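Posting this for the archive.
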Amino acid sequence: MEGMSSSASSGPSYEVFLSFRGADTRHGFTDYLYHAMVGVGILVFRDDESLRVGQKIGGEFLQAIENSKIYIPIFSKNYASSHWCLRELTYMVECTSKLNENKEILPIFLDVEPEDVKLKTDLYSQALAKHQEKFGAEVESWKKALNEVDEIKGWNLKKDQGQGDLIRLVIRTISVKLKVAHENVTEHLVRVDDRVEAIIKMLEVGFDGVRFLGIHRMGGVGKTTLAKVVFNALSSSFDGCCFLADIGESSKCYNGLVNLQKQLLSKLLGSHSIDQINNVNDGINMMNRGVLKNKKFIIVLDDVDEKEQLKSLAEKGNWFGFSSRIIITTRDQSILMIKGEAIGEGLVEKSANILTYDVQEMEFHHALKLFSRHAFRRDSPPEDRMFLSKEIVHTLGKLPLALEITGSSLNGKPKE
């Protein structure tokens, strides 16, 4: 494998590299897994056997391995009979062993047991013995790679487990590791941990029923930031997730509500699910038929400002699978309250568990700390800027968004 690094420094970057025995799984499990990954936006490399020329790995294969973040060897009965697969695996182990490389191997034991891969049975051992005459000493490196990968926690397809269930589990794990569903949040957060903890406690992820939570207060108080942090913390616990941002603004665009419905369904079910949605009623009818009932989802509807938006996107709790969680952020608490009942009649069925969280304004010392982190990249202002900083915080009303924007705009500027 010497001399490979220099030739692989360029080329396309991938997030996942699939290593598999084509004759075993190309048109079955690997194909399903590949398309499932592509469907959720993961950049995945699946080799083309026509690219394999000669006896050595090179060119596009080498670049794909070096430029990927996660390696998934799919161990099938004939995996070890392919010297290509064994060379790929050995090079993946080499790449993950480099101290400056943040890469990971996540094996799948498809129709073999870990003992087979560890060469404790005849299945892979006999295949390695057949390679010995042709490839000589190189086989020892393959044996070492097989043993190292066997020590890594992966997935073992159980006899009573369907391939679809395994693929969903793999997709969920990979998505979390790659932060596919991660919402970007500013690095300089102040006093969010206790609020996030309170919201998560209210959501009770282990609770079986569908639960709605409305986060409300005036604009700029930090509702969206809280929703993002909670979403990032909990998304891995659900079968699917979707964060719809700026709903109020987006719904005002041409076909705004229809496009929001398409975003929601496409994110949760895949792009194929939106072909028949031409108007808002089509989207409502589709969700009312129960297309989202078989899985548990976490959904954030951000900055809702009209009841019609909720009717179009989350009218009834029975649209969603048990244990689903729907978080709504809004400036207008009346959207969450009808006749004294949070998200009441006509919007969410009474059997749904509905809660509201009122975001309180920041205490002054927390607001000053937030401003300082953005303006000075430290927890408190320098002595010669303290008075001015306090005046700014007072003037901005301790609103997190205003503090963040103003502080960032003043960073590095002279006192004047």
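The chain has 18 helices and 13 strands. The longest strand covers residues 70-75.
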